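Today's session is about reading a structure prediction critically. Students often jump straight to the picture, but the first step is always the sequence itself: look for stretches that repeat, for charged clusters, for runs of hydrophobic residues. Only then move on to the predicted structure, which in these notes is written as discrete structure tokens rather than atom positions. Here is the chain we will use throughout the hour.
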Amino acid sequence: MIEANRPLGPEDHLIYDKINSKPKIVVLNKIDLIRKGNETILPDSWRFDDRASISALYDRGIDHLKKKVIKVAGGQNRLDFEAVVVPNLRQKLLLETSLDAAESVIAQLKKGTSSDLVAIPLQEAIDALGVISGDNVKVDVLNEIFSRFCVGK
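Below is the predicted structure for this chain, in token form.
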């Protein structure tokens, strides 16, 4: 994410260099602050999968950005865990669990399995995604996460 109303700084170039090989969307935020002559100019050498202009403050372009994120992160087919950026191993395993459960749901539906039995892997897929999003957090998961941090006074 880059502020659309200022020139690129050294830190912007550093971040780009670190993520250059990953799928990415360049997000220009603060488009509401652009005035003639102060807009960000991206180098021609920068490659990116997509680009979005938003104003987070005024909720402009957010829905468009969400669609781009889904397209770039998930692609048109099955998730490619080599191409998608996943913050940590725990979340990667949860995504794999959810994907496996979702594929099980599809297979069972194709076989004509009753909805009561299909609901079990469907709930498993939903629960795994809920843990990642924070909607479904269990005490043991919180303990695991916070055990990695040293909380001082």
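Discussion point for the tutorial: The first strand starts at residue 2 and ends at 3.
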